[in-house]
Amino acid sequence: MEKFTPLVARIFLSAIFLKAGIDKVLDPASTQQYMESKGLPFAGLLLIPTIIVLLVGGLSVLLGFKARLGAWLLIGFLIPATLIFHTDFSAPGQDIQFFKNLGLMGGLLMITCFGAGSFSFDQGNRLFNNVP
């Protein structure tokens, strides 16, 4: 079971980023409007790299391909996103969103430190070593 844990963790961790990226692709106008409501200048231009970071970083973590780099990319996204969008603790649910993002950063930091683990492209030809 221990050999599968990193894979399951990567699936769970990447799901939120992949869903967020897909949602932004499917409804960019709402996302841009929300970004503008928070006072972000050039929201339309920032939306494109946001989508790219979410999808590329999410896939990197999910597949375990350059997972450390993908995790750093997502952490680099989460820090400003958390500070810009989730620090109004008087608004309902923003405290949970803030701490959720801290938890995501914690999981991503584990990947930056320990790598993608078993069943990942980063493991290369050792992908199925010791599997009966």
From TrEMBL:
It is a multi-pass membrane protein. Its main location: membrane. The chain crosses the membrane at residues 7-22, 42-62, 69-86, 98-119. Keywords: Cell membrane, Membrane, Transmembrane, Transmembrane helix. It is found in: Cell membrane. GO terms for cellular component: plasma membrane. Pfam families: DoxX. Belongs to the DoxX family. This is DoxX family protein. It comes from Gloeothece verrucosa (strain PCC 7822).
